[in-house]
Amino acid sequence: MSLVVQKFGGSSVANAERIHRAAGRASAARRAGKRVIVVVSAMGDETDRLIDLAHQITPSPSRRELDQLLATGEQVSIALMAMAIHHAGCDATSLTGGQIALRTNRAFGRARIREIAQRERIDRLLDAGQIVIVAGFQGIDEESNVTTLGRGGSDTTAVALAAALAADECEIYTDVDGIYTADPRIVPAARKLDAIAYDEMLELAALGAQVMHSRSIELANNYNVVVHVRSSFSDVPGTRIVQETQAMEKVVVRGAALKRDLARISLLAAPVSAGLAAAVFARISEAGLVVDDIIQNVQHADGTTNISFTIAVDDIGEARGLAAILSLELGFRAVEIDQEVAKVSVVGIGMRSHTGVAAMMFDALSKAGVTIENISTSEIVIGCIIRRNDGERALQAIHDAFGLERKPAAAN
Amino acid sequence: MSLVVQKFGGSSVANAERIHRAAGRASAARRAGKRVIVVVSAMGDETDRLIDLAHQITPSPSRRELDQLLATGEQVSIALMAMAIHHAGCDATSLTGGQIALRTNRAFGRARIREIAQRERIDRLLDAGQIVIVAGFQGIDEESNVTTLGRGGSDTTAVALAAALAADECEIYTDVDGIYTADPRIVPAARKLDAIAYDEMLELAALGAQVMHSRSIELANNYNVVVHVRSSFSDVPGTRIVQETQAMEKVVVRGAALKRDLARISLLAAPVSAGLAAAVFARISEAGLVVDDIIQNVQHADGTTNISFTIAVDDIGEARGLAAILSLELGFRAVEIDQEVAKVSVVGIGMRSHTGVAAMMFDALSKAGVTIENISTSEIVIGCIIRRNDGERALQAIHDAFGLERKPAAAN
C-alpha cells in the first residue's frame, strides 16, 4: 500500500474552513487506499501572536523557553486537524514532536533532526487504518526539552518523515500551485514545471524562490524523497522535485530568477597579502553575516587589490560596521556601499554539458539595454549583477531568449 | 532549605503585567532562600478560546484530541512565566506534564494522577538554584498521550507536587484572599479564617465554596500537605488548610454556607418494597446525575412511601425525564418538582463532640421567620432545606447566632 506524507503550511490551516479542506484531502487519500501521514504548521499568524506574547514579557526571551512557547502553535493545529478528520469520517491520531520522539540536537530555534525514534508507533497506527497527524517544526533533545527547527521547519519534518518511513511521495501543500520557469507576477508567460531536479530547486531557493527552504530540499535529495509542491486550493498537479534524469538534462535552462534587495560592499585598494581574502571572509562569517556572492578580486598595478561581495540589503547596517572595522584593520583605503543592485540568474542542470548559455544570456541582456556589472557562475547557474531598476526587464528578456514559456520536447 | 509550591490560577496570569507580578512573588521567595516550584494555569480565557476553536471544527471533539489541544494553554503560560522570572533576574526552567512524567490513567478530560516519575529532574534543577515552573492541569498516560485532570486540575497538580517533593507549604494564589466564615458578599461581617481543617474545607467545597476543588483538598489531606489559600493581589496572609488540631476542635462551628439553585424531586406514594430505594438511586447514578441530599423516606399508613432528593437546578431537565421513567417502572403515583429551594448549612469539626448545635441553628432560623422544610446532617455539617428567597436572611441569622464574626479565644 502506498504511503504519502501531506504537509499543510500555516495559510492552509489558517481557519476552520481551511482545516476542513485539508482534512478532506487527507481523508480522500485514505479512502483511495493510501497510508497517510499529515504534517501541519501553526495556524496562520499564530507563531507571530506567540512571539508577540513573549515580547510583551521581555525583549530577549530565552531560546529554550521561546521554543517551549512556539511549539504550542503546531500542537493546536494537529489536535484541530485530527478533529476535522474525525468529522470527515476517518480515524486519526495527532502526535507532537515529543510523542514521535523526533530527536534533535539542542540548538534551540534552529535544531537539526537526528532521528525519529518512534517510527513503530506511527507504523502501528497506519497499520490500524489511522491517519497520523504530526506537528511540524518541533522536536525534543535528549532531555526532552522542546526544540524547534527554524525557518522551513515543517517542510523539514515532512521530508524527514517521508525519508524515515520510505514514503512514495511527500506532498507540500502551499498557496502557489508549483514551481514556475520565473516569477509569474513579473513574467506573465512563465510556465509551471512538471518536474525539477533537487539541485535546480536548491539554486532557485538560494535565489529567493520562497516555496521551500533549502534545508528540506537537501534532506529530500539525500534520501531521494520525491517532493510534490502543489496548491491547497485546487486539485491540479503541481511540480515534483526529483532526482535528475537523462531526459531532464536535455533542457539546458530550467528557469530564471530575479533576486532583488541586494547590496554590494566593495573594499578598495588594500595592499595585497597572502591571507587577505581569508581574513576578510573569516571576520564576515564570525559576524554571522550571509554573503550572497563574492564578486571579484581585482589586483591593481600598484600592488593593491579590491574585494567586493553582495549581501541582503536588510543586513546593511551590520555589514557597514563590519566593513569599517575591516578597512581599519586590513588597510583598505575606502569602502563603497551600493544599495541599488539586483541579480538575475538562469538555472539548469543541462548547463553542465552545454556551452553558449552565458553568451546567450549576455546577448539578451545587452539587447534589452541592461548593463551587466558583475558575473557569478556555478556549475548550474549563471548570475549577473545589474541595477535594481533593470531587474524586471532583465528577467523578462532572459525568459524570452531561452523560450522558457514553451514546454520542451524532451521533458518539461 | 524550605520548599514552597506556588500555584497561580488563570486570572493571576491573565496578561503580561500579572505574569510579571506572579514572577515577582516567585523570585522574592527564591531570594529569601527558599526552593521554589511554580505551577500555572492557562492565561485568563485561553482554555475557553481553545474549546471554541475545537467547536468551530466539530460539535463533539474527541476527548483525546481535546486534551492534546487544551494542554497547550498551560504550556504557553509556563514558557511566559519562565521568561518573566528570567527578566526578574532569577534562573528558571519550565516543564510540561510530559517533561516531569506526571503519569495519569487514560481518562481523558478527568484523568487521575498515578505518579510523578521525574522528581529527580525537578530536584536537580532546584539544587542548581533554579525556580522550576510546571504546567498545571496536564499529564501523560503510559503511551505519552496527553491527558488533562479536569476541574481544579492545576490545584491538584500543585498539591501532588507538594506531596511528591515533601514541600513545606503549597500556596494557592487566587482572586480571593482566603476562606471566610460565610460569603462576605452576603454577610458583610464575615471573618477571614487563619486556618481550617481539611474535612471542614471539603464540606464547604461541597456546599459551593469555589475556592478549591474537593479533589485537591482530599489529596492534600491524604498527604498532609499544608495548603495556603491567598490573594494574588496583596501580601496579607490568607487561610491555611491543615490537619485538625485539638485547639481547632474547640471551635464548634467554623463557618456557614448557602447553596442556592437547588431543586427537590419528590417521588410520591409507591408501594413499599425491599429494594425500592436501592432501585431508585441505582437508576439515578447510572444516569450520571449528582444527588445533593437524599431528604426523607416517609412510610405511610396505607403501605406506600415517598422518596425525595435534591439536585442542582441545572440538572432539572435530565432529572425530570428520569423521574417520569422511575415512576412508571416503580409505581410512584406522582412526581413533584420544586425548583425554588436552597440549603443553609453550618460546618465545624467541633460538632463531633458538642451537642446543641442543631437546636441553636433551628432556633435562629425560627426567630428569623425562616421555615425549615427538611434537615440533613453529617458528622460535621447540619443543613436545612428552605425556600430560596429566605436564603440570604437565613445565612445572616445563623452567622449572627453562632457569633462567627468574632475570633474565638481558642484558635481562629
Short summary of the structure?
2 copies of one chain form a homodimer. With about 400 residues, chain A is an alpha/beta fold. Helices cover about 35% and strands about 25% of the residues of chain A.
E-strand count of chain A: 18
Percent in strands of chain A: 25-35%
Which value, in Å, is the CA radius of gyration of chain A? 24 Å
End-to-end Cα distance of chain A, whole Å, is: 29 Å
Report the uncertain regions of chain A: none
Structural class of chain A: alpha/beta
Order of helices and strands of chain A: EHEHHEEEHEEEHEEHHEEHEHEEHEHEEH
Given the structure, what is the number of helices of chain A? 12
Assembly state (oligomeric): homodimer
